[in-house]
Amino acid sequence: MSAINDLYQELIRDHSRRPRNHRPLPEADHSAEGHNPLCGDHVTIHLKLADGIVREATFEGTGCAISTASASLMTEAIKGQTLEQAKALFRKFHNLVTGEARETSDSPNLGKLEVFSGVCQYPMRVKCATLAWHTMEVALENEAQPVTTE
Amino acid sequence: MNTMISLPKLKIPPQLEGELDIARIRADFPILQQRVHGRPLVYLDNAATTQKPRQVIEAVARYYNEDNANVHRGVHTLSMRATESYENARRTVQRFIGAEHPEEIIFTRGATEAINLVAQAYARPRLRSGDEILISAMEHHSNIVPWQMVCEQTGARLRVIPINDAGELLMDEYASLITPRTRLVAVVHLSNALGTINPLKRIIELAHARNVPVLVDAAQSAAHLPIEVNELDCDFLAFSGHKLYGPTGIGVLYGRKEILAEMPPYQGGGDMILSVRFERTIYNELPYKFEAGTPNIAGAVGLAAAIDYIERIGRENIAAYENRLLDEAIRKLSDIRELKFIGTAAERAAVLSFILEDIHPHDIGTILDGEGIAIRTGHHCAQPVMERLSVPATARASLAFYNTTEEIDVLVQGIRRVLKVLG
Predict the structure, then answer these.
(1) Domain locations along chain B
(2) Nearest C-alpha of chain B: how many angstroms from A44?
(3) Is B392 within 8 Å of A4 when comparing Cβ atoms?
(4) Which of B132, B267, B365, B372 is a Cys-bridge partner for B181, taking CB atoms 3.0 to 4.6 Å apart?
(5) DSSP string covering B360-385, please?
(6) Which residues of B touch A124 (CB under 8 A)?
(7) CATH topology of domain B57-311
(8) Is B281 an 8 Å CB contact of chain A?
(9) What is the pLDDT of residue B138?
(10) Contact B184, B211 (CB under 8 A)
(11) If one looks up domain B14-33+314-422 in CATH, what number appears?
């Protein structure tokens, strides 16, 4: 019971019901499409970069509560970050949701994103939490082909 | 955390229980006696795989403990016993599906391998560019992809019988899709994604009237609906042991003897040959021609034990009970305003596919798991039918005769909890 409430925390519920930055971005200079064959979820990430900094980040597509909230919170988190910072944030986020962060005593320092710490109890849902991030990373590389979590 | 507990107390109204002693049946399934996340396990993922009664588990253990040897070659006692067990299992399957000859029963790894066998050994040598294979819009991937592969190999075309919004085949369209180019119809008996029961007799009559053979995918129906291949007059029929309370890794292809006899082997190896010389190999007779290598003997023994178990309870009793349980589940779930069934065919069995407003099925599945309820979520290996009905995924509760009305109530409460958390 409590495990379910750990997973679906209020912030996740809020961002899944009312996702932020959920829109196309005509001025985007980097975009990528991601796909999770397990749930059939599709997400497209749009980025507008200038001087090596993410000026704007939006997403389109629908998915489960975890993947939608993750995409929404990610677009907020990477805005204003350098490419290196955005990639480093993904590494830390990845360690958080896979539970690898627990094995080191370092505090994750992920701010709002720490709301996803419950995901590590649900290995089947890690892909839901990371789909938008994998897609963002591909968008930064500007690779054209769709990403899959498989 | 899985702890063994005593049987949950069952309150089954006598009018529902009918002929079956459900408490006794449940006691036969060791896996059902456990808690998941502190709640009694409610297993409603029977369309994915069914649980195994101890009679099946013990038959497999007994085979390995007492009779294990290779089949069809040794003259020693164990080999003779293993061979006898394996061939008896074949006759049990023959009787179960009403086939005329035991050699019409070919053991495979499952329904998937059975369909691939027909695609490669029956269809591939016969198909010419422009020929057509006809399947339906509600097929499982295992009755789509093998045909796409053979179409790619031969230049044949795959054609698809459309369905209506309820998930029923459009029979008029079907009739007009059978053309002089149609070489085979391959169609599912009971849809795993929607629960639709297809009108097989009519489908087969229409095809045979044009001299087109029919393959029936009975993976889902074998556990729920009576199957008599002679009465149906189908040419091929495929099913899996694990969806029929038997082990994984064993399945069956039924094929009409005259057709099987004309087909080349599917795989080469031991057991499928009469003699091997480097200049020339003579293939074995039916059914061994299609059973290359040491077969899944223990799997066949376990499958026969599962069939014996089902027949002891009575297939008609099982069907009657499951139908009442399905009606009850439909009635109770219909009370949930936010719930919409996907698949509302007039003729359906055992499968309840649904969506809850815009809550993603994976979230439904995770929250229900927290309540000890196992359901399937996703596209159910039937992406084209999901696309046709414009849903990316559904939640699916699928029933077996060991499920109870009490478990339906737990499911309804679980769905209400999902709505509370995410609605």
Answers:
(1) 14-33+314-422, 57-311
(2) 16
(3) no
(4) B132
(5) -HHHHHHHHHHTTEE-EEE-TT-HHH
(6) 366
(7) Aspartate Aminotransferase; domain 2 (3.40.640)
(8) no
(9) 97
(10) no
(11) 3.90.1150.10
Residues whose CB falls within 8 Å of the CB of residue B387, separated by 6 or more in sequence, listed in order: none
A71 in contact with chain B, both atoms CB, cutoff 8 A: no
The string of pLDDT tens digits covering residues A2-29 is 678 889 999 999 999 999 999 999 999 9
Catalytically active residues of B, by annotation: 381
In angstroms, the first-to-last Cα distance of chain B is 28
Strands B373-374 and B251-255: unpaired
Nearest CA-CA distance, residue A54 and chain B, Å: 30
What interface predicted TM-score (ipTM) does this complex get?
A: 0.85
Please report the domains of chain A, with CATH numbers, ordered by start residue: 3-142 (3.90.1010.10)
Instruction: Share the mean pLDDT of chain A.
Output: 88
Nearest alpha-carbon partner for B80 in B297, B305, B268, B303? B297
Return the bridge partners of B397, or none.
B352
Contact B404, B418 (CB under 8 A): no
Structure tokens at A29: 């200079």
CB proximity A147 to B under 8 Å: no
d(CA B376, CA B357) in angstroms, rounded, equals: 17
CB pairs under 8 A between A and B: 52
**pLDDT digits 0-9 by tens, B403-419:** 999 999 999 999 999 99
How many beta carbons lie within 10 A of that of residue B172, not counting itself?
Answer: 8
Structure-block tokens of residue B212: 């087109």
Whether residue B422 and residue A63 make contact (CB cut-off 8 A), yes or no, is no
CA B24 to chain centre: 25
The whole model's pTM is what?
A: 0.91
Closest chain B residue to the Cα of A68, Cα to Cα: B360
**Buried/exposed A56-79: b ≥16 CB within 10 Å, e otherwise:** bbbbbbbbbbbbbbbbbbbbebbb
3-state SS assignment for residue B345: coil
Mutate to test the interface with A, among B45, B357, B366, B387 (most CBs of A within 10 A): B366
Kindly determine whether residue B378 and residue A39, on different chains, have CB atoms separated by under 8 Å.
yes
Give φ, ψ of B154 to 5 degrees: -115, -10
B392 preceded by a cis bond (ω within 30 of 0): no
Q: At a CB cut-off of 8 Å and minimum separation 6, what does B290 contact?
A: B106, B117, B121, B253, B260, B263, B265, B266, B272
Report the C-alpha gap between B390 and B22 in whole angstroms: 38
Helices (H), B192-348: 200-209, 229-232, 257-262, 297-313, 315-334
b/e per residue B237-261 (b: at least 16 CB within 10 A): bbbbbbbbbbbbbbbbbbbbeeebe
> Among all chains, which residue has been given the structure tokens 């394996």?
B86
User: pLDDT by residue (tens digit) across B300-330?
Assistant: 999 999 999 999 999 999 999 999 999 999 9
